Amino acid sequence: MLETLYPALVEAVQDTQSATTSPAYKTFLKDVEFTATVANILSQAAAGTSIHPPNVLSDGSPIIFCVDKKGQLAGTVATTGKAIDAYDECVNPLTREDTGLSASQFTGTQFITICPYFRTSGLGAVSRDIPRPGHCLGVDTKNKFNTDRLGRAGPSMTHWGMFVLLEEIIHLYLWPEEQKRGITEHLEVYDANKVLELSVRDAPMNAASYVLYIA
Questions:
Q1: Number of Cβ within a 10 Å radius of residue 12
Q2: pTM for the full model?
Q3: How many CA atoms lie within 13 A of 50 on its CB side?
Q4: What pLDDT does 129 receive?
Q5: pLDDT for residue 79
């Protein structure tokens, strides 16, 4: 899946560095004012750049961690200090049922967690790495994105494992920029039409904007 994602990221970086950005860039990431920021985030994502201090597990580069029980990955939320166990985000500790969460990113850390649902739902299947051409976003007669063509997960494109993973990777690399702007919670707008309505300033701070751009 990562092998499929890499060339898509490289192509996106090249687009941000071109003299004229693509229509997809202008649609989802807006003005060229923040092109340098976008290019930097995409470049870091493609390279797996270390942006966190080294520890016993890695040199600070992103770590993708599959959790299947409590206690495997626990810590505190960087912005609030609240104690958190990654498995509790995946499986309700009271009902023991999947929460429907496929993956998440421990804010302020290099950890990206993959939940059991990612595997049991088939999101990680190779055949679903990328959408078929018929699943690309269309536009209806009201000049709105026809998100029905993306299937049950629709506008967020969470039906496709590669894009679920990409969103969490982007969240990781958005963290330093969020700190600069004093943002304490991720901006999470998924619906394609709502992403389209984001301001020039907000669009580059929304991980799903990058996913839709690359998709």
A1: 23
A2: 0.80
A3: 9
A4: 46
A5: 63
Which tokens hold the place of 161?
Answer: 């494992």
Contacts of 105 (CB under 8 A, 6+ apart): 111, 112, 113, 168, 169, 171, 172
Residues sharing a CB contact under 8 Å with residue 180, sequence separation 6 or more, in sequence order: none
Give CA torsion, residues 49, 50, 51, 52, to 10 deg: 160
Per residue in 13-53, pLDDT (tens digit) is 999 988 788 888 998 998 888 899 999 999 999 999 998 87
**Cα–Cα distance, 210 to 215 (Å, whole number):** 8
Residue 55: count of CB within 10 angstroms of its CB = 11
Let me know how long the chain is. 215
CA 147 to chain centre: 18
